[in-house]
Amino acid sequence: FSLDLLPSKNGKELTNYFLRQVVDVLLHYIKKTFDVKSKILDFHHPHQLLEGLDGFSLELPDHPESLEQLLVDCTDTLKYGVKTGHPRFFNQLSSGLDMIGLAGEWLTATANTNMFTYEIAPVFTVMETIVLKKMYEIIGWKETEADGLFSPAIGGSISNLYGILVARYKQYPEIKTKGMTALPHIVLFVSEQGHYSVKKAAAILGIGTDNVIEVKCDERGRMIPAELEKNIAQAKRKGQTPFFVSTTAGTTVYGAFDPLCDIADICEKHKLWMHVDAAWGGGLLLSRSHSYKLRGIERANSVTWNPHKLMGAPLQCSAILIQEKDLLEACNQMRAGYLFQPDKLYNVEFDTGDKTIQCGQHIEFFLFWVMYSSSGTYGFEAQINKHMELAKYFYKVLKERDNFKLVFDAEPEFTNVCFWYLPPRLKHIPKGFERDQELQKIAPKIKALMIEEGSAMISYQPCGDKVNFFRMVFSNPATTQTDVDYLIEEIERLGKDL
Amino acid sequence: FSLDLLPSKNGKELTNYFLRQVVDVLLHYIKKTFDVKSKILDFHHPHQLLEGLDGFSLELPDHPESLEQLLVDCTDTLKYGVKTGHPRFFNQLSSGLDMIGLAGEWLTATANTNMFTYEIAPVFTVMETIVLKKMYEIIGWKETEADGLFSPAIGGSISNLYGILVARYKQYPEIKTKGMTALPHIVLFVSEQGHYSVKKAAAILGIGTDNVIEVKCDERGRMIPAELEKNIAQAKRKGQTPFFVSTTAGTTVYGAFDPLCDIADICEKHKLWMHVDAAWGGGLLLSRSHSYKLRGIERANSVTWNPHKLMGAPLQCSAILIQEKDLLEACNQMRAGYLFQPDKLYNVEFDTGDKTIQCGQHIEFFLFWVMYSSSGTYGFEAQINKHMELAKYFYKVLKERDNFKLVFDAEPEFTNVCFWYLPPRLKHIPKGFERDQELQKIAPKIKALMIEEGSAMISYQPCGDKVNFFRMVFSNPATTQTDVDYLIEEIERLGKDL
């Protein structure tokens, strides 16, 4: 029983034994994850899990369960889950299971400390500044002036929220004490392909989603600078006060990069805060052959960047980076006396907890530090270039296939490749409403079959006037050309008679 | 090198070997953590860590480092950190290192998935509903009507923010689209001993800290209901619109419980949302002998509860629970087409990601599920009662000691015990400004010495008109009476000549 483990008096041996048994379960899972012949998932419906599968009960007991039973529960938890590191898991922007990042996570869990003060996280707080400094450098900011933090376990949405929060405070410091009612009617801009978290943040921050103005995109999903200009002028005419533009470097569906330089010019002209949501695309900065796609990011006031996406770090690892120092702290600090005592024995500059919107915070960046140490800048670059190569390969193969149709017939800018599968029976229906109605149902059906078989996982969605299409995306280091070929055959096999 | 690990073709053996080596490092750390004779920390200043200690460099390389070097780095990261599970670590409300929770964390890291949809986290999404259901039950809510979520890795501050966010939406659904400018001048209430995160949330949400009204407490730190009534009436007279009262079950410094029943009556009368911040005190609900201190919590509209505090779960594990179903979703959902497709093969009710303020979310509750399974309700109860017993013991011992002075001379309501240490030379100075000036410096000095020696860690803070005092707190299952006796002697030893 757990009571026999440490800190129990004679618990040392049993603890070692038990934790090693747990690790055996995990190592077995890892082996399966990378075995391309194993199923990605063993699908069951929610009600089946609720009812209990083969004795795997999710109910919480009044009396303790044995350690043996817990090991079985752990095995079952993994057994009925989804292997997100499987070479054929393409379902999310973040996929893959990095062994070094994993080791980092195990260590972080064991260290079990909190980032709010240097006092209880001396190595981690200092290490975080080093990781952030490297990120400023890569973006092209002078480190001494910049600031940032890793948004614990929450991802890019909260990083984007931080961007808006800090921008609003910079422009209107009275927001902190007086609230929105003291401000003019502020509005912000994001492209129609930008991430939905910008709207979510506006709702949370009391700005309101109506005050998020969507800027039109070109057909590849990039914000059109002239449209932004137009929207700004319109807003001003209506008596609204523009303050913030959220650009995107790597949109979720199309993988598009907004023209950052042009938008930076507009922001400068109108004195607007420029934010770059590079949650997905940020990693591309490490590739000397592709980083030009983010040119202009060095002019941004703030950047969201998720190493857990393109750079393959485990979930979650997302940073918000702010070009102007001290804003984060001024915006968020509350100086709780019981936590941030000024009369400490060390330089309290490293007590960074008051910069955050939360209080307690898990250590999230360490896995990135240890991955960076193990890969080096060049190791990341090589991996990222490989993802780009695979995307190009995938695009070329699709282009030659009869029953696949690309959403854009042009080489991918990023690792997203969007496409439809058209079963033979649809090929003879002319393009139009009738065909669209049928085509809309194809991707969901193929995906449902795929999940039931556990053979691969890929995302689909409708977008604008386009009915459901697949979005292939490369960020999984386990994926090879063979897996890509397999996916295409699998879609054909499952879809051809639909 | 990391490139030789999985998914590298022949990486299986090396991966097993490497991860087992990592686990050896961790097991060694765990052994040290529970060894009362080992130092809690090996203190160094930030600049020393930055410069590199004994070859431990925090800098990030361009070229890959060897796996051997990484193991050394991992060892060093732990070596210079703080053992928060050490039997004499009393510095934070969350302390201790639970072996089962730790195993849960390792598993979660290995599963490396995201909670936003059932599709990619089938077991976890269903399991979370079971854990939440258990929490509603314990609070005394009817499960079918309640709702909730674990705020990933961010702790009680964000849970409190959720409480205010949802309450505001319930009262003024137009907030989501129109923002604060569409609302009347809303104000909320929290006691002067309540957590600072309530003010922080007000700043973030665009309400403003000026609109957080602090209600006076009695000398034990409990909100005075009559004062709340007065503050509400005052606000109304000023034309402000009260909408929310944040009560506290277990304040951070004093461990006080607000009189929830009386406040519930007031909230009912004025139609205000009642929130209970039970981040620290929630666990007491599991103790049949102490749960009466939270009587009235079943009438709350929302509750924050952090199993990572009193219940000993690893960081972070914090839940926000809402009595009314569907509000969380209505308030936060944005229905991103690429994530929440309606045309799936399963019951999409379990795609809970749209209820949250973020998008991606780490699995945080699993460690709690597995701890609950291993302890059972009664196991938690026994542990919590033990903490309460130790607090009582500590109080009694201090009461009898000459140079220690209790902040309140009454049996502790919770596991917080606040006290001053008075070095002999101060005992003869009469109570007053002069003595206070000296006393203010004592706790920081003793703590600095303690940290340098690495012998124990305990928090101190000033509070109101009270100069720096120590706050002892029991939540570490490794702590025994011997450690408590030791702490008292250690404070005396370090402080008697100051």
TrEMBL record, chains A, B:
A GO molecular-function descriptor: glutamate decarboxylase activity
Top-level lineage group: Eukaryota
Leader sequence residues: none
Known cofactor(s): pyridoxal 5'-phosphate
Pfam families, per the entry: Pyridoxal_deC
Coiled coil: none
A cellular component term, taken from the record's GO annotations: cytoplasm
Keywords, ordered alphabetically: Decarboxylase, Lyase, Pyridoxal phosphate
Residues the record lists as N6-(pyridoxal phosphate)lysine modifications: K309
InterPro entries per UniProt: PyrdxlP-dep_de-COase, PyrdxlP-dep_Trfase, PyrdxlP-dep_Trfase_major
Complex formation: Homodimer.
PANTHER family: GLUTAMATE DECARBOXYLASE 1, GLUTAMATE DECARBOXYLASE-RELATED
Name of the featured protein: Glutamate decarboxylase 1
The organism of origin for this protein: Loxodonta africana
